[in-house]
Write a structure and sequence with these properties.
Elements: E1 2-6, H1 18-32, E2 36-42, E3 53-63, E4 66-76, E5 83-88, H2 90-93, H3 110-128, E6 134-138, H4 144-151, E7 162-167, E8 175-177, H5 189-193, E9 197-198, E10 201-203, H6 204-211, E11 214-217, H7 220-225, H8 236-241, E12 246-248, H9 278-288, E13 299-306, H10 312-316, H11 323-329, E14 333-340, H12 342-354, E15 358-362, H13 366-375, E16 378-381, H14 391-397, E17 401-405, H15 408-413, E18 427-429, H16 434-450, H17 452-463, H18 470-488
Parallel strand pairs: 1-2, 1-6, 2-5, 6-7, 7-11, 11-12, 13-14, 13-16, 14-15, 16-17, 17-18
Antiparallel strand pairs: 3-4, 4-5, 8-10, 9-10
Helix pairs in contact: 3-4, 4-6, 9-13
This protein binds adenosine-5'-diphosphate and alpha-D-glucopyranose (GLC).
């Protein structure tokens, strides 16, 4: 099959979160199954043109009120032959930030910027003379591509192309004033028909949920959760209506990048058979974070966007978050790597200065994220909701026991510890409250001090789990096949 991935992020070119990892790794996995997969994304200012190939000739994209002239560049995904095409348009993407910058987290011209992406993705296929069987769009920023297929291209050279839309995070929907709708270049008839209308505003994600042939999301549990009001961010009704077209497929892990036996970013490599070498990484992590190099105290790690989704209010919220109590009442160390909401960054700096056993690094740091996975004993992820979550899988593979909340992909990847039998791979908290985080971290520390044999068994069990992309890629293949079958009916 010819498969076009439309996305606003893909590693190693542009990343704010797991979306970037998932899109690239899925593309490579599908190409290994024999498909012709191509990826299209904007050429953000940070992506150096000099490292890309120029695809000759300008590309005119009819978009909104105007014909927009763009350039096209290309590259391939590392260790693969998957082509990546970059849409170059100075006015839209020639600036810092993917969706925004700290002073303007959501650029006010995002409806234009990401409408252009949708139009340009389809135009690109014509330019390079390659028509996809499947257009697979990811999250709201890529939503326009499947919508255009249904409403603009139903009788064009795309008439046999089916669309698949993946929800990586339903909390981000791309909601804007409807006066910006003309930028989509769709007619006003389609405003309702395509599902853009949302309480008199326009909602990109909603339109993709209504208009795409098939929908997927990134874990089976999240697929069920988003059909309920608690997790659906107002889209639960549509998703219940479309439930027969919705599949939950667990993300895999890019084992080329995340593998403790081969990881170039950690001081000492190790496997389940040589797990005792993990202690060297713990020592290095403690040193890097300025903590006492004590092997006997449990070390809790965190790598996260500092966003409400991740449970950071309950953990770090000034005066009510439990981190301070955890670090003063339980004998442990804690390291945090993260960036995001300013109040939370501020709170982390305060904890940094007040607690001798707490150390936070505010920022984005790939190598430190690997060192935390390798060096910590436990990994904390008390998410309010978690479509899939990658870090708990990295943790399991690195023998770092996850402490997670019972939601989304965390449910599908972590089994709760059973104190009687020693079974399980992690520690699970049910309800998200400061107290329950405190209790569950306390429970993990208790196991560390009193049931060390269980802790070791859990580490090994986690390390022996398989999280490769091969199984998931086959499931996507089935979704594509069904989308094409439905199309022919
Ligand atoms: P989400 O996409 O919701 O942020 P995921 O767990 O799916 O959550 O993916 C997060 C990805 O981003 C992981 O690869 C994680 O290591 C990485 N990450 C998040 N914050 C940072 C940071 N501050 N520094 C380095 N990597 C980070
Ligand atoms: C989103 C989700 C995360 C998921 C990632 C990749 O950012 O928040 O849970 O792992 O997308 O699908």
């Amino acid at each position: 099959m010819n498969i076009l991935m439309v996305t606003s992020e893909a590693v190693p070119f542009a990343k704010t979160g797991g979306l970037a990892d998932a899109v690239s790794a899925l593309s490579v996995a599908l190409s290994k199954l024999g498909h012709d997969v191509r990826v299209v994304l904007p050429r953000y200012y940070r992506i150096d043109r000099n490292k890309l190939e120029h695809v000759s000739g300008p590309m005119g994209v009819h978009c909104g009120y105007q014909e927009i002239w763009t350039g096209v560049y290309s590259a391939v995904l590392p260790d693969s032959t998957v082509p990546v095409y970059f849409i170059d348009h100075e006015q839209s993407y020639g600036r810092d930030g993917i969706y925004g910058i700290p002073e303007e987290p959501d650029f006010n011209d995002n409806p234009q910027r990401f409408s252009l992406l949708g139009h340009a993705a389809l135009q690109l296929c014509r330019k390079i003379g390659w028509m996809p069987d499947i257009v697979h769009a990811h999250d709201w920023a890529a939503a326009l591509a499947p919508i255009l297929l249904k409403f603009h291209e139903a009788y064009s050279d795309f008439s046999a192309t089916a669309s698949v839309f993946t929800i990586h995070n339903i909390g981000y929907q791309g909601i804007y004033g409807k006066h910006l709708y003309p930028h989509t270049a769709l007619s006003w008839d389609n405003f309702y028909a395509a599902g853009f209308e949302d309480w008199d505003r326009m909602n990109f994600l909603k339109a993709a949920l209504v208009s795409s042939d098939k929908l997927t999301t990134v874990s089976p549990t999240y697929a069920k959760e988003i059909q309920r009001p608690e997790y659906g961010f107002r889209m639960d009704g549509i998703l219940r209506y479309r439930s027969s077209d919705l599949t939950g497929i667990l993300n895999g892990v890019d084992t080329g990048t995340w593998n403790p036996g081969k990881d170039k970013l950690i001081p000492v490599k190790y496997t389940a058979k040589t797990i005792e070498k993990k202690a060297e990484n713990k020592k290095a992590l403690q040193k890097r974070m300025g903590l006492p190099q004590n092997p006997d105290v449990p070390l809790i790690g965190m790598v996260t966007r500092l966003a409400d989704q991740k449970g950071v209010s309950e953990l770090f919220g000034p005066s009510y978050g439990s981190a301070h109590r955890i670090c003063t009442e339980i004998d442990l160390q804690m390291v945090v790597l993260g960036s995001g909401e300013p109040w939370c960054e501020q709170e982390l700096s305060t904890l940094n200065h007040t607690l001798p056993n707490f150390s936070a690094y505010i920022g984005y740091d790939d190598s430190l994220s690997h060192l935390i996975e390798a060096g910590a004993d436990f990994f904390l992820m008390p998410s309010r909701y978690e479509p899939c979550g990658l870090n708990q899988m990295y943790s399991l593979m690195y023998g770092t026991i996850p402490i997670v909340r019972k939601t989304g992909g965390l449910v599908d990847t972590v089994e709760n510890y059973n104190e009687q039998t020693g079974e399980g791979t992690g520690f699970i908290l049910d309800h998200l409250t400061p107290q329950s985080i405190y209790d569950t971290v306390g429970w993990a520390a208790y196991a560390w001090y009193n049931k060390r044999d269980h802790v070791r068994e859990m580490q090994i069990r986690g390390m022996n789990k398989k999280f490769g992309w091969d199984v998931s890629a086959k499931q996507y293949e089935d979704v594509y096949k069904n989308a094409l079958l439905d199309k022919k009916r």
